[in-house]
């Protein structure tokens, strides 16, 4: 029922928006001629300018400009009246406009709704939707459910912990940071929780690691000295602060003993190379650019850099296609295509790796796990 009331109100408003101007125009035509009414309006505007000037609402130059413009319009209206061009409009046209507004507009609107709308569906306000079972609801509705719950129960730390990563994935790092902060306050700090809070703060700050985010990463390292993610961000922070030597030492410490196949390793190697630090021994095994290549690439135009990277990736793909390779090499090729944003070739590399190691369960499991992480295989 509420929907129909809204439709009626909207139709009435639309009709009035047409009828009122028509009625005013018609009334002016039956009494004082329209141009005479215009002259009266312009004279009233002149008086209004004088009143505004007396009350210091406008300055003298603005008042003079307004007087000039109004006087020009007043003279033009006077000329129209003298020439007889200010004749009242036709009452027939007004009546036709009223008929269209009163009859045709509502009929058209109702017909359009009957075709495109769902008149038989009952009203379903947000509160009712949120009270329904969560199965089948959109992510936005589920988030609204949790937010409503947290507004009523702000001390529910688990609720804040649940909604924080969802807000992060939805592109709201600022909201995620607040949710993580509440979860830390109510549930206590854990390495993962304070690290994710610092990451959300960093994303909300356009990638710049603030003092608050740095404090969160440092707390995470105190809780778990071997944790990779907070140490990664702390190394980034040192580079952002211009502490090159400390940043190099942080990256080298992070990479020392790291698994070459870890997803974060290429990014860490790239940061270390930018700072001019000594690369670890396993860097040469990743079929990536050497230090000399990185230095040469820094002087290239962006399109030349992209061409060089694509060439190295293609060289690895050609070698694996013709000679075969280890599971780690296939995974590196999959990761390279993923970084380049070419998911189609990444999926082809994954399928080729599956064919090559389909009869070796341990290696196949490793390839499948990497594919899931890169979004190339079935979850």
Automatic annotation (TrEMBL):
GO CC aspect terms: cell envelope; plasma membrane
Compartment(s): Cell envelope
Entry superkingdom: Bacteria
GO biological process, one term: cytochrome complex assembly
Keywords recorded for this protein, A-Z: Cytochrome c-type biogenesis, Repeat, TPR repeat
Record domain Cytochrome c-type biogenesis protein H TPR: where: 131-256
Family matches, as InterPro entries: C-type_cytochrome_biogenesis, Cyt_c_biogenesis_CcmI, TPR-like_helical_dom_sf, TPR_CcmH_CycH
Database matches in SUPFAM superfamilies: TPR-like
Keyword Repeat assigned: yes
Protein name: C-type cytochrome biogenesis protein CcmI
Organism: Roseibium aquae
